[in-house]
Hints:
Layout (H helix, E strand, L loop, with lengths): L2 E10 L3 E2 L6 E2 L3 E3 L4 E4 L2 E2 L7 H4 L6 E5 H11 L12 E4 L11 E4 L3 E8 L4 H7 L4 H8 L4 E7 L1 E3 L4 E6 L7 H6 L3 H12 L6 H13 L1
Parallel strand pairs: 7-8
Antiparallel strand pairs: 1-4, 1-8, 1-13, 2-3, 5-6, 5-12, 7-11, 9-10, 9-13, 10-11
Helix pairs in contact: 6-7
Amino acid sequence: MTTGSLLAVCRVHALLPTQDSTGVTAIDKRAVDGPVNVHKLGLTGDIQASRKHHGGESKAIYAYSQQDADYWDAELGRDMSPGKFGENLRVDGIDASRAVIGERWQVGDDVVLEVTAPRTPCANFARFLKEPQWVKRFAEENRVGTYLRVISKGQIQAGDAVTVVDRPDHGITGHQVFAGLDADTARRLLAAEKQGVTLSPEIHKVVAAILRRA
């Protein structure tokens, strides 16, 4: 199985004001030193200002790959250091954007995470980065990273190994989900669920919408 490394663990640095009904965003994440506890709703010391859009058990943790960050470094001409994407985990050697739905990662000795859904960029993300047409550009590149649920709790820290310990046979990735599924692929996800793959509420919503149009 694929093994990479955890380059950084990131938590909220400051809550920033927003123009939406929540009033604040916790997108300003910064890398922290030392071990961090992982629980069912994410990292100890982190905040999810709007769990409707960026939290809850199926979106407890957001991971982004260094290879995608390197792309944006070059594209934007700026340093997209850990936390710049609002991510909790910056990983290397693991393709978070193309992780298979239901794939499981072991991080360090004890923590196991499960890939649930791709990230959808929002206006708060664009305002935070102050990049023109950012939501459109980020979405078009489909380097969106992945949300994860916590299967096994524990501690993690920068330098830990990240190992893909299970990858479902259906093979459908978050990258494909974000790009748009057809009816056959949506049905494959439902079939995979019957075989034991857990589909998040977000994926169920996407699948249901596709099959209504089929």
